[in-house]
Amino acid sequence: MNRYVTVACALLLCASVESVWAEALYNEQTYHAYVADRRAYRAGDLLTVMVVENSTAATTADTSASRNNDVGLKLDYDNRVKHGASLQVGNDFDAQGRVQRSGRLLAQITVNVVAVRQNGDLEVNGRQMLDINDEKQEILLQGVVRPADVDKGNTVLSSRLGEASIRYAGQGELADRQKPSWWSRLLTVLGW
């Protein structure tokens, strides 16, 4: 009899609970298996970008220009009065210039996936601010990542970013000391 009461209670309990739908347990848009890799694949996911950038640029310019103009005038009148005038103008210009610049940036920044394109590529955007001894250093990064380029550690090299925009800027005493003073810039504008 005890057994019949337990079965009846179980049937009554099942009848009173709303039916559970399979779609409530599985949603294709948000499903991610527990045994799958933890790689970024949707908006809102985080991804670590290993910034390894080396750049070198060199420019050389040589300019040379020369111009000579001669103007002359001579008047003779009955072999007695002679007048003459002459003007010569010359202009020479030689200039040489060379600019050489190199830069290296090594950083690690975690960015946010802001959108997923129709082809599955991830649009990423991130900002990292460092404050060391009153020197503020900021790294801004934007770009597009192919999911195939994301390794199993959920990281990607900056060289694998499409449409990459990487900005590194600093503020503080050291950054201010590397800029010419206002009066030096004024003298440069005036040509001194």
UniProtKB/TrEMBL annotation:
Q: In the record, which residues are listed under signal peptide?
A: 1-22
Q: What is its main location?
A: membrane
Which GO biological-process labels does this protein carry? bacterial-type flagellum-dependent cell motility
GO CC terms on record?
bacterial-type flagellum basal body, distal rod, L ring; cell outer membrane
Q: Which residues form a coiled coil?
A: none
Alphabetized UniProt keyword annotations: Bacterial flagellum, Cell outer membrane, Cell projection, Cilium, Flagellum, Membrane, Signal
Task: Enumerate the subcellular locations listed in this protein's record, separating them with semicolons.
Answer: Cell outer membrane; Bacterial flagellum basal body
One GO MF term attached to the UniProt entry? cytoskeletal motor activity
Q: HAMAP family, per this entry?
A: FlgH
* Membership in a protein family: Belongs to the FlgH family.
Its function? Assembles around the rod to form the L-ring and probably protects the motor/basal body from shearing forces during rotation.
What does the record note on quaternary structure?
The basal body constitutes a major portion of the flagellar organelle and consists of four rings (L,P,S, and M) mounted on a central rod.
Supply the name of the protein.
Answer: Flagellar L-ring protein
Whose protein is this, by species? Andreprevotia lacus DSM 23236
